[in-house]
Design brief:
A seven-stranded parallel β-sheet has the order 4-3-2-1-5-6-7, sandwiched between helices. It has two domains: 44 residues; 195 residues, Rossmann fold, CATH 3.40.50. Helix 3 packs parallel to helix 4 and helix 3 packs parallel to helix 8. The protein is α/β, with parallel strands linked by helices. The longest helix is centred in the first third of the chain and has 28 residues.
Length: 244
């Protein structure tokens, strides 16, 4: 769009009714976004401590990845950690299922998608979102740790989000655990050999996460991290989360 046309539309000259209708539609979407935030805040503020578990929706129940995620979630649940997943099938179902078999509350943050996202039946608490960005805030805001299992673009997006927020100081540093070294190793090599080598990230940024192979190691990493510190955020950490 050229500058003259933009000026005409922006300041009401030659502004067609279809532009007004589009603006009204976009403006009203703000209320839908607000309602998703409010619903999430009001529901999740009572569910603490919690661990967010991420991973592929396409992994079957007979997969070792599914079994590992379910076992990790059950161990965490029995240790007093609720589990938050994306609410769908695959790793998300495994996380909710493992938590539901334990002592703590199993939470699903479900997203409306044209395909793949069918809510699993292992959720004690279910919240539904139309927007990925509101859902992401809920994953971050109420988690005491993140566990990232094998997955595709969505999982990589969530992993990058967690690392970016921690790296930039927008959220407190908490455990970020990648499960299954064989799956993640090519990406970790790229982090070191390309991103670090070209100064895209600092070498110390590789310390923002831990890589493990078993459910027991996931459980141990999180429980040992909180063995001598309060799982509740400090006042300073709460201020960060409020500005997320």
């Amino acid at each position: 769009m050229d500058k003259k046309r933009y000026t005409e539309i922006r300041y009401g000259h030659n502004n067609g009714s279809h532009i007004d209708a589009e603006l009204n539609r976009e403006s009203w979407r703000v209320f839908k976004i607000m309602s998703e935030f409010v619903d999430g805040f009001e529901t999740l503020c009572h569910i603490k401590p919690a661990v967010s578990i991420f991973g592929s929706a396409r992994i079957g129940r007979d997969s070792p990845h599914y079994q590992q995620a379910m076992e990790a979630a059950r161990l965490l649940s029995d240790s007093g950690f609720s589990v938050i997943s994306g609410g769908g099938p695959g790793i998300m179902e495994a996380a909710n299922r493992g938590c539901a078999e334990g002592d703590s509350v199993s939470v699903g943050l479900n997203i409306e998608l044209p395909k793949e996202q069918i809510p699993n039946k292992y959720q004690d608490v279910s919240i539904y979102f139309s927007h990925f960005f509101t859902r992401k805030v809920m994953f971050v805001k109420y988690a005491a740790a993140y566990v990232v299992c094998p997955g595709g673009f969505g999982t990589l997006d969530e992993l990058a989000e967690m690392l970016t927020l921690t790296q930039t100081g927008k959220t407190p540093q908490i455990p970020v655990i990648l499960m299954n070294r064989a799956f993640w190793q090519p990406l970790l090599d790229w982090f070191k050999d390309t991103l670090c080598a070209q100064n895209m990230i600092r070498e110390e940024d590789l310390g923002l996460f831990e890589v493990v192979d078993t459910a027991e190691e996931v459980h141990r990493a999180i429980t040992e991290y909180y063995a001598h510190r309060d799982v509740e955020p400090t006042r300073e950490e709460m201020d960060k989360l409020l500005r997320l």
